[in-house]
Amino acid sequence: MPEQNPPLASAGSYALGPRRVRRIGYGAMQLAGDNVFGPPRDRDEALRVLRAAVAAGVDHIDTAQYYGPGVVNELIREALHPYPDDLAIVSKVAARRDESGAVLPYDEPHQLREGVEDNLATLGVDRLAAVNLRMVDRTAAPGRRFDSQLAALVRARDEGLIDGIGLSNISREHLLRAVDQTEIVCVQNLFNLADQGSVDVLQECTGRGIAFVPFCPLGWPRGVQNRILSSPALGDLGRRLGATPAQLALAWLLDLAPNILLIPGTRTRTHLAENLTTASVRLDEASREELAREFPTRVSRERGRG
Q1: How far apart are the first and last CA of the chain?
Q2: For 52-70, what is the mean pLDDT?
Q3: C-alpha dihedral over 70, 91, 32, 135, to 10 degrees?
Q4: Looking at 14, 26, 67, 106, which residue is catalytic?
Q5: Whether 63 contacts 89, CB under 8 Å
Q6: Is 67 a known active-site residue?
Q7: Is the bond into 2 cis (omega within 30 degrees of 0)?
Q8: pLDDT digit string (tens) for 233-285?
Q9: Confidence band for 172, pLDDT divided at 50, 70 and 90
Q10: Fold for domain 17-294?
Q11: Whole-angstrom Cα distance, residue 27 to residue 41?
């Protein structure tokens, strides 16, 4: 059971706006049905996973109103409300689901405000730790429309609906334009051993003291994930360190930079326990070199776990 894991505090902590959270959190997206749409396969287990995560010391949960839609937020509320004082719930806006489950943009300024309010209502809170503005196309150059989207979240923060503003699926240019206008507390981008395309965003965040939250930390799509989890290098290293390939992929991220916050997701308590036990995995220099040969990186590591 997760309660038997080494304390998550051993992985360190990092600032998430005015809060400080443990570096291993929980991403709740997978609690919805297949393709993040509809009810969960096992509702009772979904509730148990959420409660086990918090019981094990998780104080950072990532969610979104369009997961389900509404399904995941409602599960979080049923499982955990009233919430612990130290629990940071982070959501995101700028998308919605249609009747068939397709993900559609919902990113006009008034729609972003509606998204924030919908999250508050389904979660049963008056305020969120942070809300991420999720870009549909990270390759599009930021301009006046981006500024107006950002301004909608600034208003929500100024009115006390959220503590901090984050960005998701962005380029370095988005980040630089945003920080010229307001404080950014976190960035969520695709990043893992096999896909390091956001290395420039990570490095910018590290230099500025902004939390970087990699989504799909074990790889996506499935072919990328398989490359990581079936890697001979991770298999050999895992046998030496007593860790699974998934734990090593997560430990690599923790080791990469002190501002990385993990939010691995799962539908089962068994997998949750495996993810949380990553807190006890330590990479030595030989391990880092072995992984770098298999998955080259341009990141200059900043040692320390927060």
Answers
A1: 26
A2: 98
A3: 100
A4: 67
A5: yes
A6: yes
A7: no
A8: 999 999 999 999 999 999 999 999 999 999 999 999 999 999 999 999 999 99
A9: very high
A10: TIM Barrel (3.20.20)
A11: 17
